[in-house]
Amino acid sequence: MTMPDLRNQNLLFVTGHLAENSLREILQPLSQKLGFRSHVTVPGVQVAALLHVDLLKRRLTVPADIDRVILPGWVQGNIQQLEDQFGCPVIRGPKDLYDLPEFFGEAQRPRAALDRYSIEIIGEINHATRQPLSKVIEEARAMHRAGADVIDVGCVPGESSHRVGEIVRRLRSEQLRVSIDSFDRSEVEQAVEAGAELILSCNQSNVDWVTQLQTEVVLIPETPSDLPSLDRLIEQVSARSVPFRVDPILEPIGMGFTASLQRYLQVRQCYPDVPMMMGVGNLTELTEVDSAGVNLLMAAVCEELGIQSVLTTQVAGWCRGSVAELDVARRMVHHSIQQKTLPKHLGISLVMLRDARRRKTSSEALQQLASAITDGNFRIFAADDGLHLMNRRGHWIGEQPFEIFGSALQQNPDIDAAHAFYLGFEMARAEMARLLGKHYVQDEGISWGLAGQLPGSATVHHRKSSDPGSASIENSPDAEPS
Hints:
This protein is α/β, with parallel strands linked by helices and about 475 residues long. Helices cover about 35% and strands about 15% of the residues. The strands form 3 sheets. It has an 8-stranded parallel sheet. Helix 6 (about 165-175) links the parallel strand 6 (about 150-155) and strand 7 (about 175-180).
């Protein structure tokens, strides 16, 4: 629809409680630019998607000086009834409030600046004392590039390595901040002498000697459920004027996960100003699930509780990008909580396996396209009803690329090896995108978010439209209109 001239008009925007702050943030620059005065009202619902004309007729109040009412696009019912009741135009806006600038004819939604965060990331190199020094340095550099603020030298329980000092000195020569994860006195003393700034961890077994080093320590209870032992430890270390942070210990799912979360909350309530740490690797490493969502949720817990640091590893395959994921997550949750807005539309780095939006093409539109093709170049589409392969000789539809290609080969016996390889490659990508719910465009890369940027991620160079057997969908006169 074409919006009328809104200059000097009073516009009333209707929304739910959850979206109110975000809506006001969007409207401030938009109203200044377009010259209208914005007013926001919440008719007693949390979520805008629950609004209905019948409910608005009962709950909505429209002041006499309002020129137009803008409803969320989710509102159901006949809005003419609202116009009759309130005597002013009522318009359904977009379903997503971040599409308001585009709805009003402006540019797409502005990007949030995610340059601030409050959570420090400690990246642990597991069993560092058993690895070659070159590999330790390589992994530390990669973690630092991914967002780790401190590199933790993970030692092996029950062993006492003479290599700790060398490792820490080498890491410090790289201008990296270092912590030491060991209860062995020799290893800890080597690390501190070489420049380590944090000791993981301290309990009654080592409090007497570890506090003599006058280096910051992480205090942990004797057992995860023994918070009184943590209280005693805090008192002891405070009396010795040694800097510390507290970790009540996050336990894995099946081992008391929820109870451990409650303990973090309890410690924060008892000690509102004490620095805290959470070992999120206890959850991500020990839960066989893609780690990005888990890391974001745990970052949100830490942000809300004022837990200033997290410790993570990235050994298991499903969490090999945990440092980079936490770096994105800590920025998202900081912005969300500071701005009192939902963690949406802040970038798609953590949307990796499924796309937020996928443009759908109907079967009818694809049939029309297929009937209009006049050349032999193949077009490939991933649609809800299956994969589509088409050229002037036919239109083949199915869920299995091999079956589709076999049928197409019968009508196109002149396909050479290079052409067949190209079609197989593209159809495999189309099948993968369709199964995952990702957007697929022939000859264009699939967006994998942060996963596509991690070390070891494959970089695929796609064929250009001038390569044998490919077709430029955008430039072809027979292509589907956008």
